[in-house]
Task: structure prediction
Amino acid sequence: MSHVNAPAVVERLLRAKGRWAIVGLSTNQWRAAYDTSLFIRDRLGMDIIPVNLPGDDVHGEAGYRSLGEIPAEKRPIDVVDCFVNSGRVGDVVDQAIAAGAGAVWLQLGVIDEAAAERAKAAGLDVVMNACPAREAPLLGL
Result:
């Protein structure tokens, strides 16, 4: 059965102030994660944590190489926003489960039904194939 995003979950995640770990956020200004992360931080008022392979800082925020490297003082992680391709997102979802995240948000074009089911089975909220910067204006945010 394919995952269907619950409108109430999308709205709650976008309205509730929280901490978003953004996996795939790098200093590359041409990548979608760069501007979307600014939207999440500056328009929605969320704390953001960049997660990228070199662990680079982005937007003045300390970066980490993996979700597991995020220190205790930056937890809990409310949402893990996944800007990685569908073939790699299953590992990120498993890291989110292990890190005790509250939700995973798989960006536009990022689809992994098995990973979504694992996340739901572990009690995480799941949004898949959607972008916060596109969903928020539909809610007046």
Summary: Residues 7-138 form a domain with the Rossmann fold fold (CATH 3.40.50.720). Helices lie at 7-15, 32-43, 86-98, 113-121, 132-138. The chain is about 35% helix and 15% strand.
